[in-house]
């Protein structure tokens, strides 16, 4: 298996439904549904939601308010798939959702701008500072969640660096010509420029698709 490194791009987001955000102060006990299409563990942003965000919210609610809060955690597509989380928060199926902008190429096209930058920092802190600066300079990127989709943007998250793994070895980019490679939304053009055949896919589909020959390579972050 051969690997090709690609600089980190921002993808993860946490959004909360407006019904939850507006009504929280009137009750003593809360049970919130939080979910993501990617699984906890392989997807770093989901692991941070499960291992940091959820316990931190519980701690702060306990220490700073008279309320109590519990979470029904539904990762790995248990409630909503990777391309369904935005709508699931909008429709109230989830109270809080974590998802990748890359699976909303139409509704969140402009939010995918890091995918179209020719180069990017390898350092995650530098990356997030740069992307946050763009959001701060363009408030619409945050406001659109509330205006169009009935939810509030709570935070941004980044991916680790993308790698390209293939079943067969290759030495030059020319060797990738005609090879079917799975990817997600806005990173598919990277494959086209290399002469490969891009195939829309997701992390939950990856193992089976590679095993059955749907594609012969995968553009994915190594933590997965």
Could you give the order of the helices and strands? Answer: EEHEHEHEHHHEEEHEHE
Class based on secondary structure composition and strand pairing: alpha/beta
Average pLDDT, to the nearest integer?
85
CATH class of the largest domain: Alpha Beta
**Rg, Cα atoms, Å:** 19 Å
List the total number of helices: 8
Strand order of the largest sheet: 1-7-10-8-9
Mind explaining what this structure looks like?
The chain has helices spanning 18-23, 44-64, 85-90, 113-116, 124-137, 140-149, 188-193, 206-212, and strands spanning 5-6, 10-17, 29-36, 68-74, 96-100, 151-158, 162-166, 180-183, 197-200, 217-220. The chain is globular and about 60 Å long. The model is unreliable at 1-10 (pLDDT under 50). Strand 3 (29-36), helix 2 (44-64) and strand 4 form a beta-alpha-beta unit. The chain has 224 residues and is an alpha/beta fold. It has 2 domains: 9-158, Bacterial extracellular solute-binding protein, family 7 (D-Maltodextrin-Binding Protein, domain 2), CATH 3.40.190; 162-220, 3-Layer(aba) Sandwich (D-Maltodextrin-Binding Protein, domain 2).
């Amino acid at each position: 298996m051969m690997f090709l490194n690609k600089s980190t791009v921002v993808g993860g987001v946490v959004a909360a439904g407006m019904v939850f955000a507006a009504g929280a102060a009137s009750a003593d006990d809360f049970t919130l549904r939080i979910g993501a299409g990617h699984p906890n563990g392989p997807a770093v942003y989901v692991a941070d939601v499960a291992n940091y965000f959820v316990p931190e919210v519980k701690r702060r609610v306990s220490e700073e308010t008279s309320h109590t809060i519990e979470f029904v955690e539904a990762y790995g597509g248990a409630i909503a798939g990777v391309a369904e989380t935005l709508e699931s928060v909008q429709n109230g199926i989830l109270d809080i959702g974590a998802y990748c902008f890359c699976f909303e190429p139409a509704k969140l096209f402009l939010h995918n701008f890091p995918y179209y930058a020719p180069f990017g920092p390898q350092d995650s802190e530098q990356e997030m500072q740069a992307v946050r600066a763009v959001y701060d300079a363009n408030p619409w990127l945050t406001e659109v969640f509330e205006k169009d989709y009935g939810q509030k943007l709570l935070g941004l998250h980044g991916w680790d660096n993308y790698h390209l793994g293939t079943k067969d070895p290759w030495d030059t980019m020319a060797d990738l010509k005609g090879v079917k490679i799975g990817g997600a939304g806005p990173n598919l053009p990277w494959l086209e420029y290399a002469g490969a055949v891009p195939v829309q896919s997701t992390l939950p589909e990856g193992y089976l698709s590679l095993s059955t020959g749907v594609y012969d390579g995968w553009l994915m972050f190594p933590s997965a």
